[in-house]
Amino acid sequence: MNATLYVPNHCPVKLSASGFVLPDANGYAKVSHQVASELGCVPGLVDVLVSGSGYVAYSVFDCEVEVNVTAMSVLQSMGVYESTEDAELCLRGPVLVVTLD
């Protein structure tokens, strides 16, 4: 399993996958304290952006900082995010992506 943190205007950071989990058989993605800690917020502010068999992406709910171009590109390459010109649909702030491989 791989875990990568994408922060706007910084290089991606590979994290130890220990402590992260993928969605269960019903597609439910658990928000752990570790996820919140890596995103720099409390668990109640973690937003599950997308999840599926073998992946989950988390962000900070209603984050208003810089656009995260790298995270949008990674999720688009995974086929789980549509590129957009709409500023309200852009991903902002840190994004944590956990994948099976």
Q: Outline of this structure?
A:
The chain has 101 residues and is of the alpha+beta class.
Structural description of this entry:
This protein is an alpha+beta fold. It has one domain (2-99). It is built from 2 helices and 5 strands. It has helices at 33-39, 69-77, and strands at residues 2-6, 13-15, 46-52, 55-60, 95-99. A 5-stranded antiparallel sheet has the order 2-1-5-4-3, with helices on both faces. The protein starts with a strand and ends with a strand.
Write the SSE topology.
Elements: E1 2-6, E2 13-15, H1 33-39, E3 46-52, E4 55-60, H2 69-77, E5 95-99
Antiparallel strand pairs: 1-2, 1-5, 3-4, 4-5
* Rough outline: globular
| Helicity range | 10-25%
Mean pLDDT: 91
Order of SSEs? EEHEEHE
**Total strand count, please?**
5
Count of all domains: 1
What's the tally of helices? 2
Uncertain parts: none
Instruction: Give the DSSP E fraction (strand runs of 2 or more residues).
Output: 25-35%
Largest sheet: 5 strands, antiparallel
Beginning-to-end CA distance, first to last residue = 5 Å
Kindly provide the radius of gyration, computed on alpha-carbon positions and rounded to a whole number of angstroms: 12 Å
Strand arrangement, major sheet: 2-1-5-4-3
Structural class: alpha+beta
